[in-house]
Amino acid sequence: MPCPLLAGWLSGTPVLNSSRHSAISESDYSNLSLFEQFSAAAYCPNNNNDIAGGTKLSCPTGNCPLVESSDVTTVYEFQNSLETDVTGYVAVDKTRSLTVLAFRGSSSVRNFITDANFPLVPTDICDGCTAHGGFWKSWLEARTGVTAALKTAAAANPNNKVIITGHSLGGAIADFAAAEVRKSGVAADLFTYGAPRIAGKKLSDFITNQNAGGNFRVTHLNDPVPRLPPIALGFVHISPEYYISTGNNIVPTANDITKYTGSINLSGNTGNKPGLDLSAHGWYFSQVGACGGDDFEFKN
User: Fold this and answer.
1) pTM score of the predicted model
2) Buried/exposed code over 106-125 (b: 16+ C-beta within 10 A; e: otherwise)
3) 144-181: per-residue pLDDT in tens?
4) Residues with a known catalytic role
5) Rounded alpha-carbon distances, angstroms, from residue 173 to 86, 94, 255, 294
6) Cα 162 from Cα 181, distance rounded (Å)
7) Would you state the pLDDT for residue 22?
8) SS3 152
């Protein structure tokens, strides 16, 4: 029987944003596909176990061929930090003139799905802005090392575009990272895949409206994770959403992805039938967390 929290977005009477939808361009499609592979690479231990960096990004499971075929090397790696297990890397892509910060998803999503406690805590991103306590704590643990690495990379590669990405709970941490990088005066594009809601309307709208880089929040079919924490508890999403409507184990085309705007809408992932389809969480353009093995969250 599905966890009651998965239907939480149906309870209460939130005021819905007006929602618009549109098809996506081939350029956006190419970027969504590419940065999913950078998110996939964050699951591979060989890319996040040497703080000094210097690793050529690779995915032994074969799910990041676009990354592997390019000149992409880490400059900073972090793994299993203190209490929250925040893990990922900062890498420089010389082929595309990019600096990429990627966060790995967590192995604890089953606990997250069944945990009714979604505490909100103050943040320093904007005045009066609160966020999910666990996600915020993960970012705080990573923040010092990550921001220092990004500054070092920017000094060495001043013309690089900054990309911040992550799948699942890694996407939640990426939201905070993007907000902070943009506040520092650096434009950054944000690409998340199957990310949960991180905050209420004030902080989510702040990130949506920073105008210092694009937001690309990608969801897939009946993935349960983007429906949490529930709207009924005051959580809303960053906009816009890029909704993949194809089934599991099918590589989507640009025609299979629809863009929806609004922090709350009953289209896209939120409007799909409730359920615990963790396979939909694991599959985006590939089996995104394949390097994580059988212990990771999207395995049934």
Assistant:
1) 0.90
2) bbebeebbeeeebebeebeb
3) 999 999 999 999 999 999 999 999 999 999 999 999 99
4) 168, 223, 281
5) 9, 25, 29, 23
6) 9
7) 72
8) helix
